[in-house]
Amino acid sequence: MRKYWWKFLGAALLIFSVFFGFLGETPRREILNETIRMVYFHVPMWFSMMALMISSLVFSVKYLRKGDIRDDIYASQFAAVSVVFGVLGFLTGMLWGNFTWGDWLPKDPKLIAVEVGLLIYSAYFILRGSFDDEQRRARLSGIYNIFAFASFMPLVWILPRLTDSLHPGNGGNPAFGSDMDLKMRMVFYPAVLGWIIIGTWIASLRIRIKLINETING
Amino acid sequence: MKLLSLLQTAEMADVMRSEGKIYVVVAGLLIVVTGFLAYLFFLDRKVTRLEKEVENHKK
Question: Out of A42, A122, A132, A176, which residue is the most buried by the measure of CB atoms under 10 Å away?
Answer without folding.
Answer: A42
